[in-house]
Amino acid sequence: MTDTSPSRRPPRRKRFxxxxxxxxxxxxxxxxxxxxxxGDRLVEIGPGRGALTHRLLATASGLGxxxxxxxxxxxxxxxxxxxxxxxxxxxxxxxxxxxxxxALSRERGARLRVVGNLPYNISTPLLFHLLDNRGAVQDLxxxxxxxxxxxxxxxxxxxxxxxxxxxxxPWVVVEHLFDVGPGAFQPPPRVWSAVAKLTIRQEPAFVVSxxxxxxxxxxxxxxxxxxxxxxxxxVSLEQIxxxxxxxxxxxxxxxxxxxxxxxxxxxxSPPGPD
Length: 274
Known about the structure:
Blueprint: E1 20-21, H1 24-34, E2 41-45, H2 51-59, E3 65-70, H3 73-82, E4 89-93, H4 101-108, E5 112-117, H5 123-132, E6 137-145, H6 146-153, H7 163-168, E7 172-180, E8 185-186, E9 193-200, H8 212-219, H9 227-230, H10 237-242, H11 256-268
Helix pairs in contact: 1-2, 8-11
């Protein structure tokens, strides 16, 4: 694995939430999970000092391309110099939250396979930005704080089941792959991380109502409330019962589809009096 000497490494920028993965065993497990195939179009978000980048390029001899998105100009300069003779590598000095994954997919002529050790401070908005571009993405192999991965992969009734779980459910299948200890990073974070695979569904799990997000956000704003009390401003007791749901149960006990059924009730509700 190629690395630079400490004296030549760009400084760590705390505002970008940088913790650089350096454990060869963990890197090997990530590459094995991705299982790059000839012709794949990989996109690495936040390549940092390039530890995973180098391993991906070394492992996948028939790889179609590896695009990397790096916001830190010093790290981008380091990668640009390291990869000067690698024709499969393209560096985008950009903010991943603003990056046009759809345009890149069209340019590459294929759906993208996204890889990344995502900064904890932007993980949720970045996930939803990627889902907004889901037509351009085949799957994601991402590392996040372990608690976030637990919420993403939770089942109804689990302690970790909540808004993030339900909002992801129509669009992706989440698989928790393995946990990663703080020692795998430099500097070590204060929390454990985990790696997950997110496979974009060919079709959404259900036809998503335009009010789905509002219902989910409201339902989980106060977890201890019953469904009836949590959603009293959006749907009536009669509508909850008509959907076949127990108004006295808590939101975390219901599957994602249940919130969509309630969201569709909002659409069908007659307008109130002036």
